[in-house]
Design goal:
Layout lengths: L2 E4 L1 E4 L2 E9 L14 H29 L2 H14 L4 H12 L3 H17 L4 H22 L13 E5 L4 H5 L6 E6 L7 H8 L4 E3 L4 H4 L5 E5 L4 E4 L3 H25 L4 E2 L5 E8 L4 H6 L6 E5 L13 H15 L3 E5 L26 H7 L1 H14 L4 E6 L5 H20 L9 E6 L2 H5 L1 H5 L4 E4 L1 H9 L17 H17 L3 E3 L10 H7 L3 E5 L3 H9 L3 H13 L3 H23 L1 H5 L1
Parallel strand pairs: 3-4, 4-5, 5-6, 10-11, 10-17, 11-12, 12-13, 13-14, 14-15, 15-16
Antiparallel strand pairs: 1-8, 2-6, 3-7, 7-8, 9-10
The structure holds phosphoenolpyruvate and magnesium ion.
The site of magnesium ion (MG) has 5 residues, from helix 17.
């Protein structure tokens, strides 16, 4: 009988294929007495060297084949490998207890993992995976056994696992991986980021899936809806195959229909459509969806999934790669936006009770000018390789904007004094994500080059709804009239001041809002690359006059429900109209 499970869809699309299960091989080394602790310690040192060789080789391969960020995962593992606490403890116990080193290593991994597991911080929990990963490799080296790996898969398959560690994910045979399904994991886990970057359908948080499948079982992973079907019946496979084809055809047709370059409404108004990216490798992927550049590069991902700050040079290389890939198209680099739900363990000094309202984003950067200026230096140095813009996140008022601008100025002066080349014409913008910034938009517009509205945060701050809290998710509503009026106020202020104003939150990628946003006056939208084809098609199907009329009606309403109903009606009407245009006979039935 087929089993259908619901989890968290972290990467859209449908994959259907045979299961390859990935279980971390449990090793139970025997416990026995030894007479020569020195010889036993040498065995340990030799095993560590073997692992070091593997990690260095993998790090270099990752840097060549993927990017520096993924290579940095292995640097972090090298740091754990050289953890000063581990060797002395092993030496002490070898001398005191005179038992074999493999048993001691296993015992210490268990002990440390238990200690870390009691800490609530999710970032520390992620470290358990790193720590166990390294420990397992040492054990395998001691016992001269191969570590299970997903590096070489014999055929295309869907990988099912309890969880996937950073090294397992980074080493995966991407050519044969069709999709992923795991017991554990969240939206910001490394696996999720990678799955999106490689457009692999993925569902995580499935609890016990790894115990419910056998290798070779057929499985369906529906990453769009967060559903997995194990051992599907023939009718279900047929249904999902049709859905997969439908999604792929729709995407291809949308990409074709969207044409190249600027996207025009029916009456010829040009709307710019940009991609949001989290990792440098996504830049080339986003080009396939005919984006006009990158409207938001979330640079904080370069700081995540590692144990220490990326150096200025590492940052420079990542920014240069994105700028060169996209050139001559523009790329807007956002300065470090950590905190909230994007915790960076080595930078968060203590746990906050309200992280979304806490020490995050530009507040963090202004408190840590060393980190902020190193990032700005890396950005300006990279600016000669393409068409770069910079934007500051979470600006709440003029003082913050001025302080951030002053840092950028100092960096430019410093580079000039040192004779380092940079593009002096880089435009600097301000993200509008806090209600106070909307109210002060006229003042902010006088001192920056452009606005970019981050609706993900603006909605959470305007409605006082934590964007990560599942219990209040139904209250997090982009159709709320309060939110829509804030958007309208911002675009009107920007227009009056003569500066461009874009939207780069998820709302920009939701086709339900496309006509409304165009009608409000937005002519620049930035979204995940997967949403681009559909939004471009919506734009091509929109008429300026009707869009303006829609915006006027919507902004006169006071109920979110009424607004949503109206938008759904409009979207159905547009779809019918499109049907008439492409196939009058079908529409006329
Ligand atoms: C936003 O807040 O809308 C945004 C684009 O930034 P992030 O989702 O990274 O906070
Ligand atoms: Mg934001």
């Amino acid at each position: 009988m087929e089993i259908s499970l619901r989890g968290i869809g972290v990467s859209p699309g449908v994959a259907i294929g045979p299961v390859v299960t990935f279980h971390v091989q449990a090793i139970e080394p025997p416990r026995y007495g030894i007479t020569d602790p020195v010889a036993e310690l040498s065995r340990y040192d030799a095993a560590v060297e073997k692992v070091r060789f593997y990690l260095l080789r993998t790090k270099d391969r990752m840097a060549d084949e993927v990017d520096e960020q993924h290579a940095s995962i292995f640097l972090a593992h090298l740091v754990i490998l050289d953890d000063v606490a581990l060797r002395p403890e092993i030496e002490r116990r070898l001398n005191a207890e005179k038992i074999n080193v493999d048993f001691l290593v296993q015992d210490l991994i268990g002990e440390y993992s238990k200690l870390l597991a009691n800490i609530e911080d999710p970032m520390v929990r992620e470290k358990i995976a790193d720590f166990s990963d390294v420990g397992r490799r040492i054990l395998h080296a001691l016992l001269d056994r191969e570590v299970d790996s997903l590096e070489h898969l014999e055929h295309p398959c869907v990988i099912v696992a309890g969880e996937l560690s950073p090294s397992e994910t980074a080493n995966m045979d991407m050519a044969n991986t069709m999709g992923l399904a795991t017991d554990e994991g969240g939206r910001t886990s490394h696996m999720a980021i990678l799955a999106r970057a490689f457009e692999l359908p993925a569902v995580v948080g499935l609890r016990y899936i790894s115990k419910q499948v056998m290798p070779g079982d057929t499985i369906i992973v529906d990453g769009t809806n967060g559903v997995v079907v194990i051992r599907p019946e023939r009718a279900t496979i047929t249904e999902y195959l049709a859905e997969k084809r439908r999604q792929e055809d729709e995407r291809r047709a949308l990409i074709r229909a969207g044409g190249d370059g600027p996207c025009l409404t029916q009456d010829g108004v040009q709307i710019e459509t940009f991609a949001n990216i989290d990792l440098p490798i996504e830049a080339s992927e986003s080009l396939k969806t005919k984006c006009m550049g990158v409207g938001l590069y979330r640079t904080e991902y370069l700081f995540m999934n590692r144990d220490s700050l990326p150096s200025e040079d590492t940052q420079y290389r990542a920014y240069k790669l994105v700028l060169k890939t996209m050139a001559p198209l523009p790329v807007t680099l956002r300065t470090l936006d950590i905190g909230g739900d994007k915790m960076v363990s080595y930078l968060s000094e203590r746990k906050e009770s309200n992280p979304q309202l806490g020490w995050r984003s530009i507040r963090f950067c202004l408190d840590r000018p060393d980190i902020f200026k190193a990032q700005l230096r890396a950005m300006y140095r990279a600016s000669v390789h393409g068409n770069m813009r910079i934007k500051f996140p979470m600006i709440s008022g003029l003082d913050e904007l001025r302080e951030a601008m002053a840092s950028a100025r100092q960096v430019r002066e410093d580079l000039t004094a040192r004779g380092v080349a940079f593009d002096p014409k880089v435009k600097i913008g301000c993200m509008i994500e806090i209600a106070a910034a909307v109210v002060l938009a006229d003042k902010l517009a006088e001192e920056c080059d452009f606005f970019s509205i981050g609706t993900n945060d603006l909605i959470q701050y305007a409605l006082a709804v934590d964007r990560t809290n599942e219990r209040t998710a139904h209250l997090y509503d982009p159709s709320h009239p309060g939110v829509l009026r804030l958007l309208k106020q911002t675009i009107d202020t920007a227009r009056a001041a003569g500066i461009p104003c874009a939207i780069c939150g998820e709302m920009a990628g939701d086709p339900l809002f496309t006509e409304l946003l165009v009608g409000m006056g937005f002519d620049s939208l930035s979204m995940s690359a997967v949403s681009l084809p559909q939004v471009r098609a919506e734009i091509a199907n929109t008429r300026g006059v009707a869009a303006k009329r829609l915006a006027k009606t919507v902004l006169s309403l006071g109920s979110a429900q009424e607004i949503r109903e109206l938008l759904v009606q409009r979207s159905q009407a547009r779809a019918t109209l499109q049907l008439y245009r492409t196939d009058p006979a079908a529409g006329g039935e």
